[in-house]
Amino acid sequence: MPTVTALDLQRYNGKWYEIARLPMWFERHCIGDISATYTLQPDQTVDVKNTCRTLDGMSSAQGVAVLPDSQYPGRLRVRFAPAWLSFLSFVWGDYWVIDLATDYSWVLVGAPSRNYLWILSRTQTLDEVTIGRLKDKSRLLGFAVENMIDIQNISNEESAIRK
């Protein structure tokens, strides 16, 4: 699966809002206000904080992302397991940047297994034309985009998931 040939982790820093995703067990309780915040560290690892609204309030998960091979800057690995388990290969997941706006305003992230796929944006909404184009590209790459969940981040007080 092709990935971006250049990724500036400093520019990638910051908050990203989930616009759409394939269903996955670790986001099964999220009902809206879904975001990921990435913070580049001096050692070039990236701290990851995923946050979402659930029926019981806000939930978050802390992780770390690494770039294992600088020849493939769009192919990161991420883990949410404790650091002392990082030697185990199965605690790491693929986080592949498939497409990225030149101004870093949106990104398409997936995994070569085709089990994971996200459309993320710097803003809480993204225009339907861009969403459609990214879903079309994902379909051509073998992702089951008909199963994607569209997230509607209305505000911090009100969010909904529309299918």
Please, how many domains? 1
CATH topology: Lipocalin
Major pleated sheet: 8 strands, antiparallel, barrel
Terminal CA distance reads 26 Å
As a percent range, the share of strand residues is: 35-45%
Count of separate DSSP helical elements = 2
Order of helices and strands: HEEEEEEEEHEE
Looking at CATH, the homologous superfamily is Calycin beta-barrel core domain
Radius of gyration: 15 Å
Task: Please state the second-level CATH architecture.
Answer: Beta Barrel
Q: Helical amount among residues, as a percent range?
A: 10-25%
> What number is the mean pLDDT?
90
Strand order of the largest sheet: 1-2-3-4-5-6-7-8
Shape: globular
Summarize the structure in words.
There is one protein chain. The longest helix is centred in the last third of the chain and has 13 residues, at 128-140. This protein has helices at 9-12, 128-140; strands at 14-21, 32-40, 46-54, 57-66, 75-79, 92-100, 106-110, 117-121, 149-153, 159-162. It is mainly β. It starts with 8 loop residues before the first helix and ends with a strand. Strands 1-2-3-4-5-6-7-8 form an eight-stranded antiparallel β-barrel. It has a single domain (9-162), classed as Lipocalin, CATH 2.40.128.
Characteristics:
42% strand, 10% helix, disordered C terminus, 10 strands, Lipocalin, 163 residues, eight-stranded antiparallel beta barrel, mainly beta
